[in-house]
Amino acid sequence: MTPLAGAAAAPSLVQSVDWLAIAPPTVAALAALAVLVADLFLPEHRKHLLGALALGGLAAAVLTIVPLVGADLSTFCLTADPADPADPTAPTGAAACSYVADPFTLVVQFLVLGGALLAALLSVPAVRDERLPAGEYWFLLLTSAAGAALLPASRDLATLVIALEVASLPAFALVGLRRGERRSSEAALTFFLSSVTATAVMLLGISFVYAATGSLHLTVVAEQLTSVDPRLGTLAAAGVALTLVGFAFKTAAAPFHFWVPDAYAGAPLPVAAYLSVIGKVVGFSGIALVTLVGFPTYADVWGPALALLAALTMTVGNLGALRQGADRSRGAVRLLAWSSVGQAGYLLVPLAAAGRTPESGTADALGSTVAYALMYAVVNLGAFAVAAHVGGEGRLRDYRGLYARNPLAALALGFFLLCLAGLPPGVIGLFAKVVVFRSAVDAGLGWLAVIMAVNVVLALYYYLRWTALLFRGPEPAEAATAPEGRRPGLGAPLAATLAVTGLVGVTLSGAPQLVLRFAATTLL
């Protein structure tokens, strides 16, 4: 039938999907399905092929980002009818989209999928040596990576929650994948229960925001919050604060950090490396989206909250790491866990600074946070690669004399630790800390800058103490009982991980301005 002349055309609910825009998370998800199906048919002696399939899937997902560079695509959009504005919550004639592939999305997806690829390289020997179920391991890792890649592209609160949970639920299983080991099961249970609680609080906050604005799309929420009914002002402010809880948990911000040491120590080491990097990137990107895109009007609520979280997180993390580093009988992974909590505090500083200048400070906040996240992801994955090589009980005392046993691994770990400490030759670490410090000073958060400076000095103790252990001679008793013969090598996967992380770290230390230029493309 032909519509009547002059009748207003109803807005179409049928829309095309931009497959190129959604390619990075889609390819990772398809690789997970391929691993799941292949696991059903491959005999036991060929299960190692699943690792190659997973690595190929993650590499393909990273490559799908290349054609998107310079583009600004969106899909799954709802567009208000300009002739008949029937939906008062939608901006007239403007699209409210659930998925956006802008420069910020692409940079974070590159960090997430690149970090997952390096964690997968670390996983190859771990799956073999610890006899982990290969099919389950690779499927869970790829599924979590797909959810993590979806999150930075999400532009409505429902998709953000779904992406967060898709990234989190497989991680619980990965932590507890050491079957029959009590410590692993307890760590997974603690991780799961605390995450479920944080998600419940976040969903409560999102329901408050929806009640106050009538929408879940971040751009529409931002518009509606500028003229919210005064009777709903308190409800909206409470919703803004509660929504941050779930992302603060993923970032391991204090006081939501208590799951980190046990989860890292109980999980297979590559899983701990994955959580330490991907969890941080997912958490900070989620916080950036909901605050800078969805809630800029309520910067007076989330700005001070993030500043307090940053100060508390870096202090608690560094004090915990000091306690771990003072005793060489303690685990190195636990030290890295507490260190990662402290590093999460530094990541939150620029976002807290943006709360003072939400309009003009958005670009600087994102650039500073992404620059620091890039540095942290590279050097932390490299440090975990050396920890995987040392193996054993993973005590700090096991690293004494590492230079005599494996000079390459010792030099690499020393460089990574100096980057985390912000000392030469780890210039990129110093550069990243200066950028974050400057964002606090420029925003007038002098007290936060002072707390950060004190924490940087505190961190020097345990980073330098660990570095010094690498170049000391072995204990006399250990030297007398040391076995003769050829020392074990790194192995191809660990050597590749160290080569990539070391090369990137050295390159960025030689030309730190590359990080700022890279981060400058993350404008929302």
Automatic annotation (TrEMBL):
Keyword Cell membrane in record: yes
Organism: Streptomyces hazeniae
Protein name (database record): NADH-quinone oxidoreductase subunit N
Broadest EC class assigned to this enzyme: translocase
Keyword set, alphabetical order: Cell membrane, Membrane, NAD, Quinone, Translocase, Transmembrane, Transmembrane helix, Transport
Domain of life: Bacteria
EC nos: 7.1.1.-
Complex and partners: NDH-1 is composed of 14 different subunits. Subunits NuoA, H, J, K, L, M, N constitute the membrane sector of the complex.
